[in-house]
Amino acid sequence: MRRLFLPLFFGVLGTAILLWLGTWQVQRLAWKEGVLNEINTRIVAAPVAVPEKPDPEADRFLPVQADGRITTDEIHLLASSKQTGAIYRVVAAFETGGRRLMVDRGWIKPDQKDVARDSFDTTVIGNLHWPDEIDSYTPAPDLESNIWFARDVAVMAETLGTEPVLIVLREMPEKNTEVTPLPVSSSGIPNDHLQYAVTWFSLALVWVVMTVYYLRRMRIREKV
């Protein structure tokens, strides 16, 4: 029995730890689903006026509405769509109430990149957003060709001469028919906790099976 104590101890300890990790991931899953539901509810809420000094954390996804003029000053961001393939997102300067902000108008096909789009007055309805799309592998924008690879709000604002405030359209404004809105959603927020929970619980089961197998082998050897 003394020889069996140590492997039995590690078997029980390992199983307990793996079950605890799986349970913790289930709890995290419930928390993340609550956060995503809250974000989804906020995204589609009634729009309000754009705050004077929006906060990138407190005002993320805030639904806003503003009257103004979408200008011809644009930034083109290379992206992709499962249905369409390569696309360009169009971010334009937006003049409203003496302020100059940015509007993510949506996407166009590559052959529409260099097509001149008119400036026009409209009512913009969308969500404030500060996308987290930059990492060490993101290429620098090709300013000569006006090809960007990520929405860096601060850098885009400096290029367009605007405040670092980005409104992502959620509805098609008048005269925006050549650009298809690509609204914000919670789909890009990772929620892998269920997968992690299944992994930990599966490892716990494997740990139990291996422990039982090892103990049986030891018992057989002792009898021999």
Automatic annotation (TrEMBL):
Superkingdom of source: Bacteria
Recorded topology in the membrane: Multi-pass membrane protein
PANTHER family in UniProt: SURFEIT LOCUS PROTEIN (PTHR23427), SURFEIT LOCUS PROTEIN 1 (PTHR23427:SF2)
Source species of the chain: Cognatishimia activa
InterPro entries on file: Surf1/Shy1, Surf1/Surf4
Keywords in alphabetical order: Cell membrane, Membrane, Transmembrane, Transmembrane helix
Keyword Methyltransferase included in the entry's annotation: no
Regions crossing the membrane: 194-215
Protein family according to the UniProt entry: Belongs to the SURF1 family.
Localization in the cell: Cell membrane; Membrane
Protein name per the record: SURF1-like protein
UniProt xrefs under PROSITE patterns: SURF1 (PS50895)
GO cellular component, one term: plasma membrane
